[in-house]
Amino acid sequence: MDDTLIAAMLASTLRVSTPLILCALAGMFSERSGVVDIGLEGKMLFAAFAAGAAGAAYQSTALALGLGVLVAVALSWMHGLACVSHKGDQVVSGVAINIIAAGMTVVLGIAWFSQGGQTPPVGSDVRIQALFPGLPEALYGIPLVGRIVGEGLLSHNAMVYLALALVPACWWVLFRTRFGLRLRAVGENPQMVDAAGVSVSRLRYAALTINGVLCGLAGAYLVLAQSANFSANMTAGRGFMALAALIFGRWHPVGAFWACLLFGFLDAAAIRLQGVQISGFGEVPVQFIQALPYVLTVVLLAGFIGKAVAPQALGRPYSKER
Amino acid sequence: MNANYALPRWADLVLLPAVCLLVALLAAAGVVAMVGQDPVEVISVLVQGAFGSQRGISYTLYYATTFIFTGLAVAVAFHGGLFNIGGEGQAILGGLGTGLMALWLSHALPAWMMLPLMVLSGALFGAAWAAVPAYLQAYRGSHVVITTIMFNFIASSLLVYLLVNHLRPAGSMSVESAAFAASAKLPGMHEALAAIGIEWDASPLNMSLILALLASAGVYLFLWRTRAGYRLRAVGSSQSAAEYAGINVRHQIVIAMAISGALAGMVGMNEIAGVNGKLLLEFVSGAGFTGIAVALMGRNHPVGIIFASVLFGALFQGGAEVAFEVSGFSREMVVMLQGFIVLFSGAMVYVIAPMLAWVLSKFVKSGVQHG
């Protein structure tokens, strides 16, 4: 493999992984606090739409990002209202969020922009550009590593680096702060947290708020960095892939990060492997590589490659016993 | 389920779903008004489009047929205490089973042998696809909700792979199989009605509607009139109690999901054998998820599911009509409404039920017991 290919694969892996990382971290906060979140897909989709619509209408990056985050947080709170405050079914609520998002984004898109559910492209000054313009090319002269470091690692926009920085940050919040300790405790044993005089629902709402912010960033990234506009169902299962990565990473930020990179790499590889003959194997079906993250997650969940231990109280609404 | 409210039975079965539906409709009407449409006009076009003509009614019932299958699938799993979110994947596999059987044998066998074989093959494929996550939950402890989501994606990849690489006739550009021979085509309803002397417009509505109604009756008889159904419901209402009663909970989980998958698999009869006459992509198009809304609306009872399916069929048909007639309106409005229905009659029912109980207690003094 030459350095051009390695650099290109590294670059596209990081680009594809970014929304997965943000979304998986979002899911981690919610699920560590004991609230199942299969609505990641819907929140990301709705945030992408909000960012696309605001970006196209107001030509402002900050507004696009802000509205994307706001919409995702609002959906998270709706989830909280249904299944933290009122003890509804968390899975059903998540499914509802996904279906509402899939329908409503297209409805609003057609009504507001009449382009078949798409938003108009946001201007290039609104899009999030590479953080170090010109730097990658300057490094190409260095032998061996120049191209890999330049194109592979330094050609990205700020959100890619933000996602990478959030991995240790989330680890620190979760495992080194009092808030993180309580958050994890409420997902394992809410009765104990309640007995200690800490509000279970307030903690779960806090987790859901962080979850919304991160989902919003993931959705906004899709519109502002990856493509230039919103199109119907543009998340295309990424929310579920992030959920798979979260489980694959055993509800741990660093584990989830590696799983996202792996899934991102498979995604990037699937495009490049189209029609490529591998000696001994023949042609590798692209569909097989696309399905691999889901297959791996099922195999992991079945305990064949280690055990994935979910937070104890995951999926159970908390009510005080009388 | 929740001790804070108690509704009389008629209110629980009829009034509560109606109120949940009303709230969902109001939310959708709010969005309709927000995008500058007149909700009243939209609804009248919708009702007219769904029920105003023979063609409209036929399409409504054609959509309803698919939703009956997926709704029953969700309901049977629910009675076994499982949330089957994998109807989409099971329906894909069911269609694959139906289609493979047709491609394999439809040249050689007559219709009276072919069609039952196709139903059987579709149901078996769907059942097998659902039984794997069920087995993994029962014996390996992996949660069926997550694994069925994963199985949805795996199923759609599998279908794309088979269609692109193996089933597509040589030289064809479109991603679909060869057309089946005539013996693998389920007769349309208009053909069946013509045979007994009733004139009816041609439409995609086909004999699988009868199959769906039979399946509903079968599910009712199974769940409430057989011992096996009783065991299944016992596990659904309390696993530990069922265990003490000597019921093998693990078997029941696999059985419930397999039946559920078989029902979802029969979607293939309506879409593949009844309408398209060949295997193609996207023939399920979200019906697995609509099944969740249908089951929630229909309170997981076959009769309720038939009504809810007709309602959703009408929404899909009427919605398409509205999208055609009213500019700036899209049929995704129906998907959105479906989401609201899942939200209000599934997740937020504990918000609505106590309010309803409170309101009822003001009007009906005797019928309400306070829990």
From TrEMBL, chain A:
Subcellular location per the Swiss-Prot or TrEMBL entry: Cell membrane
Membrane-topology descriptor: Multi-pass membrane protein
Membrane-spanning ranges: 6-28, 64-84, 91-113, 158-175, 205-224, 255-271, 291-310
Major site of localization recorded for this protein: membrane
Keywords on record: Cell membrane, Membrane, Transmembrane, Transmembrane helix
Pfam families named in the record: BPD_transp_2 (PF02653)
InterPro entries for this protein: ABC_transp_permease (IPR001851)
Protein name: ABC transporter permease
TrEMBL record, chain B:
Keyword ATP-binding attributed: no
InterPro entries: ABC_transp_permease
Membrane-protein topology: Multi-pass membrane protein
Chief localization: membrane
Bilayer-spanning residue ranges: 57-78, 85-105, 111-132, 144-164, 205-223, 253-273, 279-298, 305-324, 336-360
Subcellular localization(s) per the UniProt record: Cell membrane
Lineage top rank: taxon: Bacteria
Keywords, alphabetical: Cell membrane, Membrane, Transmembrane, Transmembrane helix
PANTHER family: ABC TRANSPORTER, PERMEASE PROTEIN, GUANOSINE ABC TRANSPORTER PERMEASE PROTEIN NUPP
Name under which the protein is recorded: ABC transporter permease
Organism: Rhodoferax potami
